[in-house]
Amino acid sequence: SYLNSKITEAQVADDELICPLPGCRTEITVAQIEGATLGTAIWDKFLQFRMALWQPGGPDGRMVDCPTPECGKFLVEADIDFVKCPMCAREFCTRCGMKVHEGISCEAFKAWHGENAQADDNFEELMAQQKWRRCPRCNAPSERASGCNFMQCRSAVCRKHTFWCYICGKELPKDDHYTHYPRGPYEDECNTPEAERVHKEGPQEEPSNGVVPQGGAGAA
Fold it and tell me: How far apart are CA 188 and CA 59, in angstroms?
């Protein structure tokens, strides 16, 4: 129907929901829409889209979009810069939608964020090239510093309490130091089926420099 089509396409403003007869500009009222669609998904969509269009009538407030996907909008004071979303509790800047950056302009923070994002991308590329792994519990980057594939994470989070396999990437009990490897922990083979592995390819050959990135793990 005409109403279904207009509402489904989010055309719910006062000047969009009008009589479909040629030359007629009579507004279809909310009461009429409610009478025709109440209790249906179309009525729920109408309310959702109409709410998204709503703006405060005075200068005392404004609507902001929470940057969390599919979260929603909410009303804030007109001169406020940083808020916490009442639905998902995310804190963000109402001007640019990024993280709170008190004392720094939105433009400067965006530039800083872009530079650091590029640095993160470069590090991820380096990890892929060197075939470094991440601890499955704290996500700290790690390099196998010796020939053993049974890892003990030495990050500030795990503090040597987390053990994991460098081949499959899964966390292991300490007692699995040898039983997890059918030919021993110094061979690049473990009991985890290929389809269940966090890391789909075998680790690199033993590095010659024995370097472990800061906060990472080492062979147990």
Answer: 66
Task: Kindly give the residue spans of alpha helices, DSSP state H, lying in 54-104.
Answer: none
φ, ψ for residue 152, nearest 5 deg: -125, 115
d(CA 201, CA 125): 16
Whole-structure pTM over 0.70, yes or no? no
pLDDT tens sequence for the chain (220 residues) = 888 898 888 888 888 888 888 888 899 998 998 998 888 988 888 888 887 776 665 566 788 889 888 888 887 887 888 998 888 888 999 989 998 888 788 998 888 888 887 777 777 887 888 888 889 998 888 888 678 999 999 887 888 899 999 999 999 999 999 999 999 999 999 999 999 998 655 444 443 343 344 334 555 5
Distance of CA 172 to the CA centre of its chain: 27
